[in-house]
């Protein structure tokens, strides 16, 4: 177990959050959101996704968002589902790409129309191209802790999958609890095993708060030595498998909890609250984050 | 650290939840709620509070609620703030009383109009009377992990307070994070120290989810060996110091998390969801619990 008190957060709101919102934002407001997140201290942001605009119309302006954020002191990641997406992202000028697959064949077929093994075969040349092009690359594996179609895939299957990815050269591997079904004991046990077995892999964890367990799972990941997590401003985005449910763990709740617990993410809470206020205005809805609700209740009380 | 997988929950919704709701329920509906909670498997419920009806009009029917639930297989607790409340509760026929005070003088003065030490002096004879009357007695200490007026009271102060209560004979001592400000590292560290030092005290923890940390704090308490917690159906009740914020940790979220994590509270999740549906209808609002939202989104999807 590492004793480092420094935690790295990758902000995924402009991608994972906005892609699942009913209301779309104009490109200029997406850029303004990313500027606010950067000003708050976010150093790495997944700013968009180069998927087919037919699939996710909200992110059809991916290249414009990249162009409009080039002067910010950020490592800008974009999700790329395939070669075409990679080429568009590279041409647009991102610093990093997020490659994706699912731990279960059922979800991988539904999402990417191929098996998990077929996805791995597709990702390896993209990973090689990213290396040659000087781009950072991370892989995000969906449905690691549970799948709406197959249930819990089991640690053994995840160990084999991580082993395959590590053999292919991947060193930054994200394990995603896409439907928020993980529990803290599972996270602690699995991450302890995986970190010991794959000591040259940098694991990152991506939690959703669907069942209210997101922050408990984050703390379990920290206890097991993980120091890199995804989070999402405002906790927006929801869950496509449970419409109306909460989305990703909210960046402001994460930063507040980390500060209280003696960890440091290098991000200013008041800057994040400004960003989530801006987002609430743009999306014309309340944010899912607890801190946002408390902040507004206190403002209301003071007024 | 105990390895027991059995967790005892005290349901506090009919008291801590309903006392803070804007909408009051008719007595018959309070009784119907308690019947549903009992049928779901709750074995201990804080069903009301014998405070002055002028202070908390929602609970003015305390004696009727006790009378209407006497045939249920429950240990029924009532909160009693003073001798008058104790006498009313005993006359009504509860099986247990919850005695209350605050860890900080500022909050104790505001809530009970006396210092913490003065409250202890008042509670000792009530505790003795409960013992002579054959009633169970627990003490709940508010603002243990943080106070809106004094901040973090510090572990040393809590150790001295618990020591005083233990010397007076109290064996069941509840530590309440009344404003939801605790963090999991604090909970784990403090409870590890307190359980070691006061090995003959049975600690119980009462968490609010104001900052979204409730379930993470619960898991930290379990990791430190605590096996008894308060929870509240629907997560209702809010926080008087942050209007609009979330209330107690929701019983259905707790039971779902415990089941997933390999613990057993002896309570059926579907029964709890029936109870929170009933409560949502009565209060004419959505519940704060994550499970309730997911359940309704899935119902909506299936419809």
Tell me what you see in this structure.
2 copies of one chain form a homodimer. The first copy, chain A, has 303 residues and is of the alpha/beta class. Chain A has one domain: Aldolase class I (TIM Barrel, Alpha-Beta Barrel). The first copy, chain A, is built from 12 helices and 8 strands. Chain A has helices at 13-19, 27-40, 62-67, 83-92, 105-112, 116-132, 155-167, 184-197, 214-223, 251-260, 269-283, 290-302, and strands at residues 8-11, 44-49, 75-80, 96-102, 136-142, 172-177, 202-207, 228-231. Chain A has an 8-stranded parallel beta sheet with strand order 1-8-7-6-5-4-3-2. In chain A, strand 7, helix 9 and strand 8 (228-231) form a beta-alpha-beta unit. In chain A, helix 2 runs antiparallel to helix 11 (269-283), helix 8 (184-197) packs parallel to helix 9 and helix 10 (251-260) runs antiparallel to helix 11 (269-283). Chain A is globular. The N and C termini of chain A lie far apart (46 Å). The model of chain A has no long low-confidence stretch (mean pLDDT 94). The interface between A and B is large, with 38 and 38 residues.
